Every structure is written in structure tokens, then in C-alpha cells.
Amino acid sequence: MSPIGVFGGTFDPIHYGHLRTAFEMLQALRFDEVRFMPCGDPPHRGETFADAKLRYEMVRVATEHQAGFTVDDRELRRSGPSYSMDTLTTLREEFPERPLCLILGMDAFLNLTTWHRWEEIIDVAHIVVAHRPGWRAPDIGPLGELIAEHGTHRVDDLHETRQGRIHIHAVTQLEISSTEIRDLVAVGRDPRFLMPDEVRDVIARSRCYGVLEERPLSVK
Ligand code: ATP
User: Fold this and answer.
1) Could you identify the atom of ligand 1 that is nearest to the CA of residue 7?
2) Ligand 1 centre and the CA of 48: distance in Å?
3) What is residue 104's three-state secondary structure?
4) pLDDT in tens, the chain (220 residues)
5) Domain map of the chain by residue range?
6) Which residues line ligand 1 (CB under 6 A)?
7) Which atom of ligand 1 is nearest to the CA of 105?
8) Which ligand 1 atom sits nearest the alpha carbon of residue 174?
9) Residues 6+ apart with CB under 8 A from 98
């Protein structure tokens, strides 16, 4: 059975860096589905800027026209910190036979050892790491050891087993971050073309990062 990619994030807001990464994974790794999983209460950072409902809405409008992209709101419905290990455990119960692939950017992977029950993640899912500019895969320390033990270059390994492998996959590098987008809006500049227009519309309507004019987007 084809793997399900699980792409967690605060998505505050979602942008083309996230979407292109997910799309390339969907195609190159032959995933059945990439499930976007907006984080309710991110354990590693303070309050989000947009609330959970808006972040969910932005992910929904950004993904609704792509076959294979789905949004899962289980972390938003759960109270307390959103631990990936808890999320993956509930997914594993729901899909006992399916390969599950946790998708992480390299920056997120490099922080893995600070995550709740991080060593158990590989027992319930594969980990797929998207290469981001300026980040190198570790070859020493606990993560270096994890890669040495579980690393694979074979995409088929992600299909033939349900969990337990780490695959590092280069994606087109789009150096966009949610922080940059929030900062742009905060100083009155337009983040158009860093994200789908539907996401920009939610930002403009809600003013969640500052005032963004709802100006007509097309020249008639
Ligand atoms: P922020 O700037 O608020 O920290 P972010 O842009 O890094 O946000 P997150 O929602 O924190 O976005 O990221 C979710 C996941 O997407 C993480 O695994 C992160 O590594 C990955 N990611 C973020 N931006 C990119 C990008 N431009 N290209 C590829 N992966 C990305």
C-alpha cells in the first residue's frame, strides 16, 4: 500500500515553500496522500499569530484543488501541546497496515532530539527529510547515529515497510518562511506570489498579521 505523508507545521501562514515540498514528495515518493496537519498548540514556540481556525482555513484553501492533498484537524481538536508522537500514534491505530511518512524540513529534523518521545517516532513512522537551503544532514551525534541506523536512499523502502526508515530528499529550494511573510504584512507590504492568492485573501480579510489591502488582484 502507498504511504501517507504527514506534514505537520504551524502554517502561520502556509506558503509555496510548504506546498511545493509536499507536491514534490507526493510525486517523487509516490505517496497516496499528503496530509497537512496544522499544529494546535506548538510545543516549541509561543502563541501563534493567526488562531487555529484561521491557520486551518488557510491550509484548507491552499490545498483544496490538488488531488492527494488533504487537511487533518486532529491536532486542533486536541487540547494541550501538539506532540507529533501522539498524532502518529492515533494515525497508526487508524491505519495499521499503511506506511506513514513524517515529512520534516531539515531545520525541523535538526531539532528532533528536543521533541517529546522523539526516539519512538521511528517505531511508528518513516521520517522523510526535505533538504532546505543552508542546512546539512548531521553525521555525528544522536541524529547522525539515527541516520546511520535507519537511513535509506531507496524510495521503495518507504513502500515495502510501514515505519523505521529515514529518507533525505532534495526538493526545489524556495527560501520562503512564514516569519518573512508575517513581517512583510506587518510593515504594510504585500506577500503576493509567496503563497496562493486564496491564502492572501484570508490574510487580507482577517487582518491576522496586519492590514493588507483587499485591492483587486487582476488588471482588467
Ligand atoms: P516560521 O517562519 O513561522 O518558523 P516556517 O515557514 O518554517 O515558519 P512551519 O509551519 O514552521 O513554517 O514549517 C512546517 C514544516 O515545513 C517544517 O518541517 C519546516 O521545516 C518546513 N518548511 C518551512 N518552510 C519551508 C520551505 N521554504 N521549504 C521547505 N520546507 C519548509
Assistant:
1) 15
2) 14
3) strand
4) 899 999 999 999 999 999 999 999 999 999 999 999 999 877 777 789 999 999 999 999 999 999 999 999 999 988 888 889 999 999 999 999 999 999 999 989 999 999 999 999 999 999 999 986 567 788 889 999 999 999 999 999 999 999 999 999 999 989 899 999 999 999 999 999 999 999 999 999 999 999 998 766 677 6
5) 4-170
6) 9-12, 17-18, 21, 104-105, 107-108, 130, 132, 174, 176-179
7) 20
8) 27
9) 1, 2, 3, 4, 162
Instruction: Provide the H-helix boundaries in the chain.
Output: 16-28, 52-63, 74-77, 84-94, 106-110, 118-124, 141-150, 155-160, 178-186, 197-206
Q: What distance in angstroms lies between residue 220's CA and the mean position of ligand 1's atoms?
A: 35
4-170 CATH choice from 3.40.50.620, 1.20.120.80, 3.40.50.700, 3.10.129.10: 3.40.50.620
Grid cell, residue 193, equals 506570489
Atom of ligand 1 nearest to the CA of 176: 27
